[in-house]
Amino acid sequence: MYLIARGVIRARIPVAYIATVAVLTFLFPMGGNDRLTWMAYQLFTGGLFLGAFFMATDYVTSPVTKKGEVIFGIGCGLLTVFIRYFGGLPEGVSYSIILMNILTPLLERAIKPRAFGSQRAPKGKVRCTVCGAVLDEGTETCPVCGVSSDKFVPETAPAGRYVPCEDNGPAYQRAYELYRRLYGAVRPLYGSG
Predict the structure, then answer these.
(1) Which residues of 84-116 are buried (b: 16+ CB within 10 A; e: fewer)?
(2) Rounded to 5 degrees, what angle do the CA atoms 152, 156, 160 make?
(3) Are 78 and 21 in contact, with CB atoms under 8 Å apart?
(4) Secondary structure letter of residue 53 according to DSSP
(5) Sign of the C-alpha dihedral computed for residues 149, 155, 156 and 161 taken in this order
(6) In the chain, N or C terminus with fewer CB closer than 10 Å?
(7) Residue 64 to residues 5, 67, 72, 180: CA-CA distances in angstroms?
């Protein structure tokens, strides 16, 4: 609690972890015990609190997004209960944290937040790769620069990103001029020439 109060760790991972273990052990008691006794036994024996507050909240191996932290804590809780119930080991905390640490890069990739200031792509829109104009999906040619629809990309591509194409259109020329002004180079941006 001291670490949470000081802002050293966030409470999402430990709360999700302990709550998942509490709910699962309350719903599925083993050994003929009543639900509350079994849940208290599973929560307060072993290294659950140590693992939840000190091991699972490691800066390097835990997720950084809010949704990722909650999913990480739930995954640790699920794996802990599964290892304790079905595994040959009495304690599953360290193994569950290690397994979820392995999955952290996948969680971060799957739950990637939008960049600050970006907007969701409108449905049915495409972007011209030559001039950057946003057009309706059925448009055959760009009214701004006149290129055909094979040079269009879905509007999900980031705005302002230059996608190189065969003909060096106005966007290439603007990028080349900016590059030349900034760096004083005379070689082209793309290609070896």
Answers:
(1) beeeeeebbbeebbeebbeebeebeeebeeeee
(2) 75
(3) no
(4) I
(5) positive
(6) C
(7) 18, 9, 10, 39
Residue 171 pLDDT greater than 70, yes or no = no
pLDDT in the model for residue 33: 84
- Contacts of 86-90 with C-beta under 8 Å, sequence gap 24+, read 90/46
This prediction has a pTM of: 0.62
Backbone angles phi, psi at 134, to 5 degrees: -95, 125
Q: What is the pLDDT of residues 118-170, one digit of tens each?
A: 666 556 778 887 777 778 887 888 888 888 877 777 766 454 444 444 455 66
Query: 50 with 108: CB under 8 angstroms?
Result: no
| Residues found in the chain | 193
Tell me if 72 sits within 8 A of 56, measured CB to CB. yes
Q: What is the DSSP letter of 141?
A: B
